Amino acid sequence: MNFNLSEEQELMRETFARFLTEQSSMPRVRAAMPSGFDAALWSGLAELGAFSIRVPEDAGGLGLGLLDAALLMEETGRTLASGPVAETLVAARLLALLGGQAELLERVLSGSAVVSLAFHDLASRPSQWVAGGAVAEAVIARQGGEIVLVTLPAGDKGEDNLASTPVAELRLAEWPRRALASGPQGLAHFEQAREEWKLLIGAALAGLGREALRMAAAYASERKQFGQFIGQFQAISHPLSDLLCEVDGGKFLVWKAIRHIADGAPESAAAVSVAAWWNSEAASRSVAQALHTFGGYGLTTEYDIFLFNLRAKAWPLVLGDPQRLLEEAGRRLYAGEKAELPRAGDCPIDFDLGADARAIAAEIDAFFEKHVTPQMREKFHYSWEGYNPEIHRKLAQENLLFPGLPKEMGGRGLSPYAKIAAMDAFEHQGYNTPAANVAQMVALIIHRFGTDELKREVLSKIMSGEVIASLGYSEPGSGSDVFAAQCKATRDGDGWRIDGTKMFTSGANLASYVLMLCRTNPDVPKHAGLTMFIVPLKAPGVTIQPVYTFQDERTNITFYDGVRIPDSWRLGAVDGGVRTMSASLELEHGGGFSKVQRAMLKAAEELCREIRHEGRPLIEDRAAQVRLARTTANLWVSDVLAFRAQWTIAEKKPNHAYGPMAKLFSSEKFLTDARDLLDLTAPLSLSKRKGAAALVNQCYRHAHGTTIYGGTSEVHRSMIAERALGMPRTRA
């Protein structure tokens, strides 16, 4: 897996970023209004080779890939560059591929001429809106079976428009034109140019949206109301956190589409449509929220945020209604619609986990084929209810139970990416392993902080698969604020006495031990007075009371009344529980809920093939395709955000709340999509019939919990606001 650009790409991105920061500053953007075209900026971009990026070397260009062009467009969007950059990039490549226009191509590359693209067939739309049409010398268009170059008359062809861009409605059929190509190859090149434009405008919108959020976060960090920075109000910071996930996800959707094109993946065409639609939506919503953050000042032209608001809407609309792109994605995913796609070129971005990952996944698949019966599978469940002691022990015997633990502990010692693949393989088999995951974390903490007695009495049993452990963090009055724990541990001779209550002690009815966070000092700041212990759940004074959820999942409330344990069962220093607990973070893998989102989507697709609507399968209905495509988009963004978090951890890169972003986004979209797919497949989805209907039904109930456990969405939004957007702390 790799999210690093090549050295050459990073240098190119930095070069364009510096240039555009200086030459497309907001005063320069304003100065270019109302025409929306900055001739000096245009010449400067040409001198840097911007318009040569996608032109083949044998035609005088740089011959670079789609990702290189997307990087330029991200910076173009960030700085609102005044001119039809995306259109000129694809038009220049098209001129080179079609040939016969060497002199015009040379002038385009030098910045002395602007050539744009008409997106629709002149045979059906002789008059069209064209980005850059107000300043273009010529427009490339399709006319039936031909690709033509329309020469535009001199003079201003623009008019006042939403964002003061050089867009114009042109009567293209009335002006001189010459054929550039005819036949399948010429038409294919033109269609490839349209698809490339979708990716480039998507990249620009991602850059624009992120900059708008940055501006809003910066303003909220310096603007005060009621004696506080407004960024301290969750009503201000939390919407920005949500939108940052969507904007970053949109950027990576563009990268994902390029990677798919390079690999020849079957969903490549749909990925292009999804990326274009997603970024149009994400940018539009982001600039609206950013402007809202500025309050009344955002409505004035003295602040720059209105420029971002208007251009976020104007840039993609030249193609037409962006919702048509989601319909297009639906047809490409579910109706077999094909598309001509451009060549991707060099793309170092890679979402593959590698050969070791594939090997461990195959080994786990083979284990389930050999050891797991259909009767066992019948009882699989996403929660602790799916725990099977026999499978658990056999996994330990095959050294597959704890892939995240080092070899010196008796673990598998897998690479970070192989560990991710192992977890994915278990998910693929339907065997979710909260019992094993928690046992692995407890084992690591005992290994790091436990006494020889604990290692002998407890760790050895955990590693052999003989026992499991649960977590005693949450309490009835503290919820996600684990540092507010009030369950007391007081000195009792040479040991400790535990008194109190723990809530949501999932698995306590199955486990032998609980890892407990206890209050050992009430007279210091709450995070400083906590200590970790291992407590046997069969000890006198422990009571386990079931708590049932509507998710078909049991959790527990556990009571501790004078439970006595020796000091040797303490983990780490007295009052050092926070440091002890931090060891578990090494097992973080930045995952979300994309695996169950994927299973839910497949189940919904299966039901849509079964359900009849107006005499045909529901999956053939356009509205159903759109809703399935939207769920697919959410799934893909969940994937790429999790990939980034996993890669960051594995490669020890700076981590700006990438894990919380992956968890927040995937859990929230799991919930909204579960609700929508339950509706889409109704009334069959009301049933708990074995198979797809039962899974869609269960996912609706399961999804609610994902926004709560592991830290509520509100907690993660605050973490994102603080760590990714640099906003002030919103929690006490």
UniProtKB/TrEMBL annotation:
GO terms for molecular function: acyl-CoA dehydrogenase activity; flavin adenine dinucleotide binding. Its cofactor is FAD. InterPro entries: Acyl-CoA_Oxase/DH_mid-dom, Acyl-CoA_Oxase/DH_mid-dom_sf, AcylCo_DH-like_C, AcylCo_DH/oxidase_C, AcylCoA_DH/ox_N, AcylCoA_DH/ox_N_sf, AcylCoA_DH/oxidase_NM_dom_sf. The keyword Flavoprotein applies. Residues 6-109, 356-466 form the Acyl-CoA dehydrogenase/oxidase N-terminal domain. It holds the Pfam family Acyl-CoA_dh_M. Residues 471-548 form the Acyl-CoA oxidase/dehydrogenase middle domain. SUPFAM superfamilies: Acyl-CoA dehydrogenase C-terminal domain-like, Acyl-CoA dehydrogenase NM domain-like. Belongs to the acyl-CoA dehydrogenase family. This is Acyl-CoA dehydrogenase. The lineage of its organism: Bacteria, Pseudomonadati, Pseudomonadota, Gammaproteobacteria, Nevskiales.
